[in-house]
Amino acid sequence: MSDNGIERQNRSVNKKGGTSRVIIVIGVVIIVLLVVVILAILFKNNSANSAESEVPKREVLVNEENVAEVAQQLEEAAVEQVQPGQYTATMNHEWHFAKGDTGSYDSYVANDIENTNDVYFDVFLENDDENAIYESPIIPRGSELKNIQLNRKLEQGSYDCILVYHLVDDQQNSISTASFTIKIIIEG
User: Cβ distance 100 to 147 under 8 Å?
Assistant: First the structure.
């Protein structure tokens, strides 16, 4: 951990596994993914007629480096999806807020340029995984968010929370998730 509280965490998939344990794990993952895909297809077919079943697309965080890229992506109808092989989360795990309705003065979340996908994340109180207290915009590779302001005012205190990353494809469909614990501290 560095002096400013930023921690790098690596998640990677071993693509060259030679042991039977790795093969078994890969087999189990493939079976689980197939079940999830089949259930998703069935669910999508059952809810295709419902306008409420569509998830709104998130806005993309645009910065000086990605303006042309974002514009090009909006013009292209379909782009080949790159499956994530590795994802590095760069963030701090304790966010401080002077008050419950102001922006944090030290929150930091980045999507490293080396990652394969854009991301967004949601923050939930540890005991409520249905009502997000923060929903980020899409964070392109190489971009970062600082001084985050929650979507919901919290009273003074310390809150254990879960931050759920969603890796997305070019159509902003979630293709993978990763969860981390963070602490939110409202000082006044």
Answer: no
Residue 55 φ then ψ, to 5°: -90, 125
* Residues 61, 66, 176: CA angle, nearest 5 degrees: 60
Rounded CA separation 121/99 (Å): 22
Q: Which tokens hold the place of 166?
A: 């969603």
- Of 120, 116, 82, 93, the residue nearest 185 (C-alpha): 93
Residues 1-40 pLDDT 10s: 445 555 555 554 444 445 677 778 787 777 777 777 776 7
Of the candidates 46, 56, 178, the residue with the CA atom closest to the CA atom of residue 111: 178
Tokens of 33: 């993914």
**Site of tokens 């965080």:** 61
Q: How many other β-carbons are positioned within 10 Å of the β-carbon of residue 58?
A: 16
The answer to whether residue 165 scores a pLDDT higher than 70 is yes
Check the CA dihedral 162-101-139-170 and report its sign: positive
The backbone torsions φ and ψ at residue 28, rounded to the nearest 5 degrees and listed phi first, read -65, -45
Residue bearing tokens 């999806």: 81
* 49 φ, ψ (degrees, to nearest 5): -85, -5
pTM, entire model: 0.56
* Integer CA distances (angstroms), 124 to 2, 130, 159, in order: 26, 7, 10
Q: Which helix (H) or strand (E) holds 35?
A: helix 20-46
